[in-house]
Amino acid sequence: MKLFIDSANPTQIQEMWDLGIIDGVTTNPSLAASAGVDYKTAVEVILKTVDGDISLEVLSTEAHEMVVEARKLAAMHHNIVVKLPATLDGLKALRTLSAESIRINMTLVFSANQALLAAKAGAYIVSPFVGRLEDAGEDAINIIHEIRQIYDNYDFQTQILFASVRSTLHVKQAALAGCDIATVPYDILQKLINHPLTDVGLKKFLDDFVKSKQKPLI
Ligand code: G3P
Q: Is 57 helix (H, G, I), strand (E, B) or coil?
């Protein structure tokens, strides 16, 4: 499963890219606002840092305007994947843009049927928002399993991106459900790396070495 970072913070993105644990980025102006960075500048830095899929969202809501905006975004860099919302206009724009081989991430997906339509219209990625579905009291993991089954039943090549990740458990659930990608906030990526029992175990190992006065091997 590929891991993307869900961030607009160039420092965090650089750190995780250098660690070699991320394959791409999803970002948007809201993330830039919460990181306190200028969105345009952040995107320019991200494009220089990460050699992988970078999903950028259109701001238009009408199909023709989405198409115009998506073409411009895609022309900026070969790694850009354009995010379109899973609305009627988004679907219309997706059909036009996928016919032009522009890679589309259909975002704000909240049902298996929306994911089915996105795949039929040629989406490169579909992004079900698991955390927000759970906030609304839905069994979101079941929806992920449904999407996986539908795509496998009909051999759709659209990649399933587990979005709105709120916990390390979500990352494991994404992998167990056969998602192609999970996009993960920086703080949760850090939690994936660390485990308190690893720190306890390392301390005991080093303390025992000192207490027992063993000689180092090298
Ligand atoms: O890419 C954005 C998506 O992951 C949303 O996350 O936490 O705002 O629901 P959240």
A: strand
